[in-house]
């Protein structure tokens, strides 16, 4: 008889934990079921059972579980296997993966909370420093979570401090445990089975001949029943019979009716299928054939298709085939490419089989999608979602489509697990013996490399659908334009002329200004000072909209300054340019046209992004200025001109992928131009018009870009030739960060020699008052990844045992992007 369970807890702890179970529990429990378990001194956590067994842990006495939370497993075996792969590959714990994988509502939180004891007698002189800090904080806010205390004291073990405070009768611990998810339940009514026969029915109506209102309800019930086989909602019945709920109540009481509840699926769309057939053109036919053929031998295929070539239609067809086989399909996209446009298109074809998994959805919505996928045994579905959709409990996955596979946002940056959804998707698909299709107009070097070396299959679409031409790309040398005084603000005369021409035709224009981070900063023309964030090593950026100076890293902000904060000179001006500045200049240049802006600031909130897109689609905006958000998956019919305001700050970004990224971004924005019959036009402004990347963009020459960049990667030992693992250390103490980084780097150099780079400070070396330092490890192809990570883990274990470095956190990022 198994008497133990191993449980994964949603914590950054390396091991599973063993708990004891009774014989009755053993009969019932299985892998994937959630249990509440005691952990540490006084906490209760939700864990997932990973194994039921009879091995006594011996080194510690297994505590009994506190509570069983599910009747059926909430996580599948496949998920548990996948979690363990993610944990080992990305060097994090299964608990961290669990946290990322399950909607928060599934992980009951018993966050211990500390409060000041009512009418506690506090004598400051009797408190140690750290105790005093906690008490002081609790005097200002009514309660603190353990995590907050850890942050406050800047150390990991705060329980001793709290224990002392409890012993002194100053602080109390309070526990809160609650089920956060409440499914929305709908009440349905059915006739009691006693009345179901024809005779009983007549008898019933006779019986009710004096109770008019009740009779009315029963008659309405029969008429609804006759119209449709759908279950009958209580609300609907009341409405049709025009009676009150008290009448229904008495019918229920008499056992004439019975009520029952069904969880309403809030995610369902009830959409109608308006398209049911895809007719490929010859190029799509060929690519589709190539993909299918490659799937005979290989599990992954790369589809390289220029923008608007009809890749999406190919995905649909592949998905359809899988659904017809009774399997599930996953359609992965970067968050920003997951637009209503695409969802609508998918629904027009697959109807209510489409489930959307989106980080902006509420917890309840995500829980429902999760349940839906888990219960998909009879009705296979298409799930469309951003990276975290790989964690859904698929039962019989047939295909994963990864669209825009080159996108860096497929990589989770923070917190752990720092996984790459594209790479993890391939592993997931293999687990199910399913296929993965990667699609992009500008594939990542890694994927193209894999296709070139026959690891992946390959298919290509080099023309736009319906003979729409690729846009014409013109490079504008703004160095020369400046010299010849042909610039108005950030606009060259060429760009202005083209904008005017487009507007005159009644067309819309898109202007691309890369990332918000390059927004203007305030600079003193007398002493050169620019206001800095007090918490981070960056200058504050100017936001004209709110008339503030803000920090993009921590959110710190102050009012715009009219005088220099250092020398009090009033000769201050804003330098650099971002989306806001372009917007301001445009408003002055084109006062009669509507200007819109799309960046992180203008699109916060659930529908912020949609609103701007819709306004642009509805022709309420003539010129849209935006960051890379604009590059993704949008199909605007009325846009023929796209301008790239400045290609150089893309190219000059200090990163080995900067050139590849610039190429991808510029081609993707260009792809927004001229998606209908008329040939689109793209203007790229640059100080370096002869830069090879700009030339390759202008001739749409992916292959040259690929070859050239690959050579650089080879020369400088970067992916795809070498794998990278980046360690980031951080702490509030500058010299501790430094010393700790030296310690780790030295230990690594002993083993990995010249393949260890750094330690070095990142471009922004202080964020929220924490100091950062990075170490990079390069792993040659012939070096075992497993062994390398094992060595690294060993080093980190020794490091963690050094008392002096307790407060230093090490973040490991495998395959950083
Ligand atoms: P991509 O995904 O490569 O950017 P899409 O699949 O969005 O390209 O196709 C571009 C446009 O062409 C879309 O408006 C799409 O509806 C249309 N299209 C593509 N293939 C077909 C087809 N076989 N039949 C009809 N329309 C198609
Ligand atoms: Zn000054
Ligand atoms: Zn800051």
Topology:
Elements: E1 4-8, E2 17-20, H1 23-28, E3 34-39, E4 43-53, E5 63-64, E6 67-68, H2 77-89, H3 94-101, E7 113-116, H4 129-140, E8 143-145, H5 146-153, H6 159-167, E9 171-174, E10 185-191, H7 198-207, H8 212-227, E11 232-233, H9 234-241, H10 245-253, E12 257-263, H11 282-297, E13 300-305, H12 311-324, E14 328-332, H13 340-350, E15 354-357, H14 363-374, E16 382-385, E17 397-403, H15 421-431, E18 435-440, H16 445-452, E19 457-461, E20 472-477, H17 478-483, E21 487-488, E22 491-492, H18 493-504, E23 508-512, E24 521-524, E25 541-543, E26 548-550, E27 557-559, E28 572-575, H19 579-589, E29 595-598, H20 608-617, E30 623-626, E31 639-644, H21 648-651, H22 658-670, E32 681-686, H23 692-698, H24 702-715, E33 722-731, H25 734-752, E34 756-760, E35 766-767, E36 770-780, H26 785-800, E37 809-814
Parallel strand pairs: 2-5, 13-18, 13-19, 14-16, 14-17, 15-16, 17-18, 20-32, 23-30, 23-31, 29-30, 31-32
Antiparallel strand pairs: 1-2, 1-4, 3-4, 3-6, 7-8, 7-9, 10-11, 10-12, 21-22, 24-28, 25-26, 26-27, 33-36, 33-37, 34-36, 35-36
The chain binds adenosine-5'-diphosphate and zinc ion (2 copies).
